[in-house]
Write a structure and sequence with these properties.
The chain is an alpha/beta fold. 27% of the residues lie in helices and 25% in strands.
Length: 220
C-alpha cells in the first residue's frame, strides 16, 4: 500500500518509511535512521513524482537517472558504519538526496557528478535546505577527488564491473568503500575495507543501479 501524500504530512510519511521500509527490514544504525527521518526526500525528486517520494522504490530524476530506493540507501550507509568526524567521498551526486543524508552523518562530504545539470540542481537544493558541509564537483567519478584524499569512506551510487583502483587508492588505511558490483542487469553490494594497503571484501544484498558509463558517473 502506498503513502497518502495529500493526506499525510511529509514528516509523517518519513516516520512511516523508516518504520516499515527500514527498521522492520533490519536497519539498526540509529544515526542512519535518524538522518532518514530528517531529510525531506520529496525535495529531491521532480514535482511530478513527489506523491511517490516515500514509496519503497527508485524514482526517475533528470538526465535519465534515478534516486535510489530508500532501503538500499539505508543499507549502504549502515554497512559503511560512518562516524560523525569522518570525511566521505560520494560518487554520483544525482539528486543530492544521499549527499544530504551523508551531511547529517559525517563531518565533510565531497561529491562528484558526471552531469553538470544534475550537479547544479543538487547544489541548489542542498544550499536551499542548508546542508553546508558539502562540496560538489562535475567530473569523472572513477577518478574520485584526489586533492581531498585520503577519505575515511567512499560511497559509489552507480554500478561497475569491478572496483575502480583509483578510488581504492583514495581511501585511508582502515577506510571503507561501498559500491554495487556486477553487470547492468543486476549487481551485489560490496563493502571493501583497506588494511595494510590491501582490500578485504564483504558481499551483501543484491541491487540494481545505473552504470558508470564511459569512465564517467551516470548519476544516483
Amino acid at each position: 500500500m502506498g503513502f497518502r501524500f495529500q493526506r499525510d504530512s511529509p514528516q509523517r510519511q518519513r516516520e512511516e518509511m523508516v518504520r516499515t521500509q527500514l527498521a522492520e527490514r533490519g536497519i539498526r544504525n540509529l544515526r542512519v535512521l535518524d538522518a532518514m527521518r530528517k531529510v525531506p526526500r520529496h525535495e529531491f525528486v521532480p514535482e511530478t513524482f513527489r506523491q511517490d517520494a516515500y514509496e519503497d522504490h527508485p524514482l526517475p530524476i533528470d538526465e535519465g537517472q534515478t534516486i535510489s530506493q530508500p532501503y538500499i540507501v539505508a543499507a549502504m550507509l549502515e554497512h559503511l558504519a560512518l562516524h560523525a568526524t569522518e570525511r566521505v567521498l560520494e560518487i554520483g551526486t544525482g539528486s543530492g538526496y544521499v549527499t544530504a543524508l551523508l551531511s547529517l552523518i559525517c563531518s565533510e562530504v565531497y561529491s562528484v557528478e558526471r552531469h553538470a545539470q544534475l550537479a547544479a540542481l543538487a547544489e541548489s537544493t542542498l544550499h536551499r535546505l542548508q546542508y553546508r558541509n558539502v562540496k560538489i564537483r562535475v567530473g569523472d567519478g572513477r577518478q574520485g577527488w584526489p586533492e581531498h584524499s585520503p577519505f575515511d569512506a567512499i560511497l559509489v551510487s552507480a554500478a561497475t564491473p569491478e572496483m575502480p583502483p583509483s578510488l581504492f587508492a583514495q581511501l585511508r588505511d582502515g577506510g571503507r568503500l561501498i559500491l554495487p558490483v556486477g553487470p547492468s542487469s543486476s549487481q551485489e553490494l560490496q563493502l571493501i575495507c583497506k588494511f595494510g594497503g590491501q582490500p578485504e571484501v564483504k558481499i551483501f544484498e543484491g541491487c540494481r543501479f545505473v552504470p558508470l558509463v564511459d569512465g564517467t558517473v551516470a548519476g544516483e
